[in-house]
Design a protein that fits this description.
alpha/beta, eight-stranded mixed beta barrel, TIM Barrel, 31 helices, binds ligand C2E, 8% strand
């Protein structure tokens, strides 16, 4: 319990978030995750060729002939076989994006940096035996470690040069546009970056090192040479293999010499003993690792996968688990290594290393007590769990051992899966709160939310896409806030307020999603949906005998660009056979209402239908009394910022008093929004305003609750 708290407590989550967000680790992990579509396609290619069922293999052979594996191989050739350059590109790209986020006015096109990283990697590789060809031997997963380092170093080197304005070639021509000038600014730093990597390669060659990858791999496996076949060595082998994977180095390949020298020869010795009818001399063999400690792939990731299925529905982690399940059954775990990712993920480093070690120790002792027959011949690596156990031990004891190990691994991974889930939520909430703040302050460097770089832009784009499906998925609904005549307590109107219940996030505030809808041009469709739904509600109430309540619906200024708007509104009203005078369109005047744009003509058309027009949020920043002359206004809604301090500020009460006088002489109705206290209500009444909307009476209500409020009415002031 205490250990659990230590790992998963509130303070611990803050600590984990700090570590997980370490800048470079975050960038690289993000870059790895972006390659997931490529990785999944590659894993499928491997599976198509290696699906370990004899009938399938014969069927494919019979139908497609000898070359049936070509398709899967070509998929692999284009994906996992070239994963290093793919990833080096995304790493460079991501580092440039982070730079742009911090320096929006000095942004560099991220593709340029991605390409540079790609070229730098090719520049330092050992060329293929065929002249000029891309060297296939190191561009796959084996080459990833050098790719990660090259990505980071080349991008940072390039940016450090790019920051020096003196190195930028200035170029601007009206014909070729501003994009070209960005390309020219990058010219000298780009050439210098590639040159630096080429020089590094020249330097290494003079030292006699042509193949840097081999050098790295050689250095890694050397200290392990000469280890004996005992439990301590096996633990060390596991530790090294997993830690290398964590660093992005193909652990199994890097430790291949150790594997061949100690564990493959042990496997062969066991095989020979079995054929001679003798007892097997070794417990720990290649088959031992493949069967009992690498179920689902390095790190016993099948246990992790099962643990991932315990997280909440709808989380990204669960989605990755679902995608990874089929390949993992056949021990293909690239989707987890690079999708979660496990590589460079400090949250998972402990269970990723500890699980195989723990399983090695447990299995070793079970076998040495004679409860598990030593493993014999090699089992095909794609053989699913339980079958592979049976084949390795030659009895069901092997499958039982696998079940025990799977469960043990599950228990080790589980707390960390929940930490990762919380850290993700923590991070999402922080960005989401920033987004909410940003939606209220659009006049920053970026005019739109969806165009912003980084996480805020990413979440905005996801939400904007989800919003497009919100009507079809029935996620939108209306709440109604009563508008009350304070002298009679009667509800004279209601305002329809749009709500969006997002499947994962829950309620998204209208201040955010209306902005998004306006940005992506979806506001016309949403606006008409609101109009129609509020008409339907009026009809439902009228059929129940509730009349005399005017329904207000909000109209965004962006909708006033649609010349067909009056006709669409009329269609809604006629569909339910309503009298247009029971509907009122509220237009917010702070958002660019202008007669120059023809808004007055459109509003006049709507008024002529018989629909009333109200100006919303009157008194906020952009207010102008000219509106009263230019637009056919039936009602003014005083903004909350004026109403808030009406009882304490002489200026606010003076302004409201003059607006009230003006409304009286122009026969415009006056409503005060955001009325929250009795003293505000009394003061407003004294100033000549007596229709109120606000929490003093009621917040926005469900249709049913609003119906009850209309019937009951409210107290008078
Ligand atoms: P609005 O039209 O000015 O709506 C009034 C907002 O004030 C509502 O917020 C309401 O819940 C809130 N409110 C009401 N009484 C009080 C009070 O006493 N105190 C405080 N602090 N707040 C109060 P909501 O529902 O979050 O809507 C925010 C804005 O989103 C609306 O401001 C409106 O501009 C926009 N909106 C909502 N529904 C629609 C819609 O269907 N179409 C369009 N275009 N915009 C909409
Ligand atoms: Mg409104
Ligand atoms: Mg308002």
């Amino acid at each position: 319990m205490r250990l659990d708290k230590l790992i998963q407590g509130k303070k611990a989550v803050v600590f984990w978030s700090g570590i997980a967000n370490l800048e470079y680790l975050g960038i690289i992990r993000n870059a790895l995750t972006l390659t997931l579509p490529v990785v999944i396609a590659g894993a499928m290619g491997v599976l198509i060729n290696n699906f370990p069922v004899a009938i399938y293999q014969t069927f494919m052979q019979d139908v497609f002939g000898d070359g049936w594996r070509s398709f899967g191989s070509y998929v692999w050739d284009g994906t996992l076989a070239v994963l290093s350059p793919v990833m080096v590109f995304t790493i460079g790209f991501n580092i440039a994006e982070r730079y742009n986020l911090k320096n929006p006015l000095d942004a560099i096109h991220p593709v340029i940096v991605g390409l540079l990283a790609f070229c730098s990697l090719l520049a330092i590789m050992e060329p293929s035996t065929k002249d000029f060809a891309i060297p296939y031997n190191w561009v796959g997963i084996h080459g990833l470690f050098l790719a990660i380092i090259t990505g980071v170093v080349s991008a940072e080197f390039f940016i450090s040069l790019y920051k020096r304005r003196i190195l930028r070639v200035r170029f601007f021509s009206e014909e070729s546009g501003a994009a070209m000038s960005g390309v020219f600014s990058a010219l000298i730093p780009a050439i210098a970056t590639i040159s630096a990597f080429a020089l590094f390669k020249v330097f290494m060659s003079t030292l006699g090192v042509n193949d840097i990858h081999s050098l790295i791999y050689g250095m890694i496996s050397r200290p392990f040479a000469g280890l004996g076949n005992n439990l301590g060595a096996a633990v060390l082998y596991n530790f090294a293999r997993q830690f290398l994977w964590f660093l992005g180095i193909h652990g199994s390949n890097a430790m291949e010499p150790v594997m061949t020298e100690i564990y493959v020869s042990a496997m062969k010795a066991n095989e020979l003993a079995i054929s001679l009818g003798e007892t097997q001399p070794f417990i720990i063999t290649k088959t031992f690792f493949d069967t009992y400690v690498s179920m689902g792939g390095a790190g016993n990731t099948l246990s992790l996968l099962i643990a991932l299925f315990t997280v909440k529905k709808g989380s990204g982690m669960k989605k990755i688990a679902q995608i990874s399940l089929l390949p993992a059954v056949f021990n293909i775990n690239e989707t987890l290594l690079f999708g979660m990712p496990l590589v460079l993920n400090p949250i998972y480093i402990f269970p990723f290393i500890a699980t195989p070690i723990a399983l090695t120790v447990v299995t070793y002792y079970v076998a040495s007590f004679g409860l598990l027959p030593s493993s014999g011949a090699e089992v095909a690596w794609t053989t699913p769990v339980f079958l592979s156990g049976y084949a390795a031990a030659g009895s069901a004891a092997g499958s039982v051992m696998q079940l025990v190990n799977l469960s043990l691994g599950f228990l080790i991974y589980l707390p960390f899966v929940h930490v990762a889930e919380r850290v993700q939520r923590f991070k999402f909430e922080a960005t989401y709160n920033e987004l909410l703040k940003a939606s209220g302050n659009l006049e920053s460097t970026y005019a739109t939310l969806t165009d912003r770089p980084g996480e805020i832009g990413a979440i905005s784009r996801v939400l904007a896409n989800d919003l497009l499906n919100s009507i079809k998925r029935n996620e939108l609904f209306l709440e109604y806030q009563p508008q009350v005549d304070c002298t009679t307590g009667r509800v004279v109107g209601v305002e329809a307020l749009l709500r969006w219940k997002h499947a994962n996030i829950g309620r998204v505030p209208p201040s955010l999603f209306i902005v998004l809808a306006e940005e992506i041009g979806f506001i016309d469709e949403i606006g008409i949906w609101v109009c129609e739904e509020s008409c339907r509600q009026v009809k439902e109430w009228r059929d129940k005998g509730l009349t005399g309540v005017v329904m207000s619906f909000n109209v965004s200024v962006k909708q006033l660009g649609d010349a067909d708007l009056p006709e669409k509104i009329l269609d809604c009203i006629e569909k339910y056979g309503l009298d247009p005078s029971c509907m009122k369109a509220e237009v917010t005047e702070s958002t660019g209402l202008s007669s120059d744009m023809g808004h007055n003509i459109l509003l006049e058309e709507i008024r002529r239908l018989g629909v009333k027009i109200a100006i919303d949020d009157f008194g906020m920043g952009h207010s102008s009394l000219v509106y009263l002359k230019q637009f056919p206004v039936a009602m003014i809604k005083l903004d909350g910022s004026l109403v808030k301090d009406v009882a304490v500020s002489k200026i606010s009460s003076d302004i409201i008093s003059s607006i009230s006088e003006l409304c009286k002489s122009m026969e415009i109705e006056l409503l005060a929004e955001f009325v929250e206290t009795e003293s505000q209500a009394r003061m407003l009444k004294e100033l000549g305003c007596h229709i109120f909307q606000g929490w003093l009476y009621s917040a926005a209500l469900s249709p049913h609750a609003c119906e009850e409020a209309i019937i009951k009415g409210f107290r008078t002031y």
